[in-house]
Specification:
The structure is a homodimer of 410-residue chains. By secondary structure, chain A is α/β, with parallel strands linked by helices. Chain A folds into 2 domains: 5-32 and 297-404, Aspartate Aminotransferase, domain 1 (Alpha-Beta Complex); 46-295, 3-Layer(aba) Sandwich (Aspartate Aminotransferase, domain 2), CATH 3.40.640. Chain A is 35% helix and 14% strand. The first copy, chain A, has 12 helices and 15 strands. Chain A has helices spanning 5-14, 45-60, 64-67, 73-81, 98-112, 127-138, 178-187, 207-210, 279-295, 297-317, 346-355, 379-394; strands at 24-25, 31-32, 41-42, 92-95, 118-121, 143-146, 160-166, 191-195, 214-217, 231-235, 325-326, 338-342, 358-359, 361-363, 367-371. In chain A, the strands form 4 sheets. A 7-stranded mixed sheet of chain A has the order 4-10-9-8-7-5-6, sandwiched between helices. Chain A has a 4-stranded antiparallel sheet with strand order 11-12-15-14, with helices on one face. In chain A, strands 1-3 form a two-stranded antiparallel sheet. In chain A, strand 5 (118-121), helix 6 and strand 6 (143-146) form a beta-alpha-beta unit. Chain A is globular. The two termini of chain A are 35 Å apart.
Chain lengths: 410, 410
């Protein structure tokens, strides 16, 4: 099949999610394949934010904690995320950052397995996940053990307290079999924490069906919650009465507004709150979550597979195997919503593509990463991106001096 | 002296800070005496936020981390807070919540005093401060000891690792002598953490001059950073190379964008960053901080004393001593920017005042608290508030059934 521009446009015309593109603000002159790093701006966000700032903060001031239910925003937005990840509404809250939430649920999980010390993860997991374990290890709370993804389920022995994995790998897009690994962990007496940062809002997740213990995830990727959006965390109901957060702030207290001297954890997942909730961040995230929930994860995942398959077909079909190596699983059901390639000059290729209006990203040392956020991308975007990639490689545009300049964030 | 409405208006006309009132959005029909809990909305906030959302996030998308320097926002806003608290620009960052920051600096301070276990604080300190200590105590990291404020400097013995105090007490407004207590702590070999939540932006603070070790503070009170604004933390330069944050996230890594498996703390205070910085929250806080810095803390503190003295004079001068007890120091130099009274029915009085358009707040069990945010309040506000308080007490309006209904947040 020749997947040319006309074919791409025909696909777009038949795309049942086509109308959602206009629900996002997207610049005219770029193809944005980095929604897995920072999701696009929903069109409704500015108005909602204006109302919360102008009317709630500006006019109702402190009264808004009650009048506009600010105080339950972490639970309200969490409950809206819950169906996207196979959780029940009272199992999810929005709070802090993914890293801070990881610290909280990891310390809590270790507390539930006091006779075990090992946290099992994989080398090359998203760095903050490993760093958070190392922080707790440095405090004498655990030790980190790494095992390759392919064999990790077989490495869960009686020393392992917690298996900590990212569901969809940030570089390769490889998706773990959540049910299989969770079952293996439980069979060995371990608990599992899933980092859903690269999967929430993009692929179906069934935390409840898999029997997962804890999870965390990011608000600013496929949930379109804006740069540095607050993150979410999940605690299975069966652990809520016994799991203890190490960050014992007043918002996680059973009766925070009684201002008592002694800490007593709140009932339920609310004990994993810590400081005052970031109302503006929660407002913006809520808009993004509502939009993703409206579209539906199954439809998003289906379209994501179609987009990424088309892209891989265009790129690899053009005889690029000499220069580019597919770094993602070839099976679209084994991937999340992004596709990665290795290239010896990945940084420069990425910069040259950005110069040509195709925004993907680079992950050290040699990964070119392209995210296919299905809520707002179309097949013409895919065709244009592949076309520009061909041009950058054919004409060796990446070799230009200007594309070697390193940025602070890459 | 009779401080009547005409006098109040005359004071307002001579007030050198009078013009700043219009730099804030304030509802016409209220006297807002709760800026110590949630600061008012600066008029410039909406526009700045609109630009960051629409132009930076919406148009420049992921490129904004470099193009708009999002990546250094925690340091940039921290550097703007620094002069307000007597710190150097490289000693302050904005990150997370006050509670999370307390956990970070407390764990770091304990790490610097490995042979000592006691954290000394005072009973009735702001609850989250005590709770955070209790969380670390529960993990076996320390033990909490409490001593009354009046004698605390004498209680710092060789077992004390860290003295943790809130500079201005959230209920009484009583201000600790930062220099004296810090000196006493150092003489005993202990470190000091100051919680500046109720003082930053309202009273002069000289962390550097006092030799303070660590500090944290709130962004949404006198800094007008909006509900749940990100908080700040201070690490004295001399501790930056050795102090270690327990929340070892990727943003505190020496080379976060090299995505290595092993954690290595960043140089300087940046190692106390953890997750991805909340860009919208930082943007909003920056507007508030710039405005407070423009006015200047000395001028703000002077006006605060004048406002609160006028209020106390009006309230206590009217023969209220039977019903109301001043719960704040009578000396304005020994107070922060809020004034509290005890009343047997403080909750109901507070609700009745809110019903009359005077917004103060209640702190359990019997405190009526009035904040005098000097950036936007005037003497007429003070007169009106005292007038309504007289009416509520004279007519026993607080005894009405409607004012007994408890709110979620009080």
């Amino acid at each position: 099949m020749t997947f040319d521009l006309e074919t791409a446009r025909a696909y777009d015309r038949r795309d049942p999610l086509r109308a959602y593109r206009d629900r996002f603000v997207l610049p005219q002159d770029v193809v944005y394949l980095d929604g897995n790093s920072l999701g696009a701006l929903p069109r409704a966000t500015a108005g909602r934010l204006e109302a919360v700032v102008g009317e709630e903060w500006g006019r109702d001031l402190i009264r808004s904690w009650n009048k506009h239910d600010w105080i339950v925003a972490p639970q309200r937005v969490g409950a809206k995320i819950a169906p996207l990840i196979g959780a029940r509404p009272h199992e999810v809250i929005v709070a802090d950052s993914t890293s801070v939430n990881l610290h909280k649920v990891l310390a809590a999980a270790l507390g539930l397995r006091p006779d075990r010390r090992v946290v099992l993860s994989e080398p090359g997991n998203f760095p903050t996940d490993l760093y958070i374990v190392q922080g707790l290890a440095g405090a004498g709370r655990c030790e980190l053990r790494l095992a390759d993804a392919e064999v990790i389920a077989d490495q869960i022995d009686a020393e392992v307290a917690v298996v900590l994995l990212t569901h969809v790998h940030y570089k390769s897009g490889r998706m773990h079999d959540m049910a299989r690994i969770t079952t293996a962990a439980h069979a060995a007496g371990a608990l599992v924490i899933w980092d859903l940062s690269h999967s929430a809002g993009a692929v179906p997740i069934d935390l409840g069906g898999c029997g997962a213990d804890f999870a965390v995830g990011c608000g600013y990727k496929y949930l379109n919650g804006g740069p540095g959006a607050p993150a979410f965390l999940y605690v299975a109901e069966r652990h809520q009465a016994t799991a203890r957060s190490p960050l014992t702030g007043w918002m996680g207290h059973a009766a925070g507004f009684e201002f008592r001297d002694d800490y007593e954890p709140a009932a339920g997942v609310a004990r994993f709150l810590c400081g005052t909730p970031p109302i503006l961040g929660l407002t913006v995230l809520e808009v993004g979550v509502e939009l993703i929930a409206e579209i539906g994860v199954d439809a998003l995942a289906r379209k994501s597979r179609e987009l990424s398959e088309a892209f891989i077909g265009l790129v690899m079909g053009a005889g690029r195997a000499v220069e580019l190596e597919l770094a993602s699983p070839a099976d679209p059901h084994a991937r999340g919503s992004h596709v990665s390639f290795r290239h010896a000059h990945a940084y420069e290729v990425c910069q040259a593509l950005i110069g040509a209006g195709v925004i993907g990203d680079f992950r050290a040392p040699d990964i070119l990463r392209f995210g296919f956020a299905p809520a707002y991308l179309g097949f013409e975007d895919v065709w244009r991106a592949a076309d520009q990639l061909s041009r950058v490689l054919d004409q060796r545009l990446w070799a230009r001096e200007e594309f070697r300049v390193r940025q602070a964030v890459t």
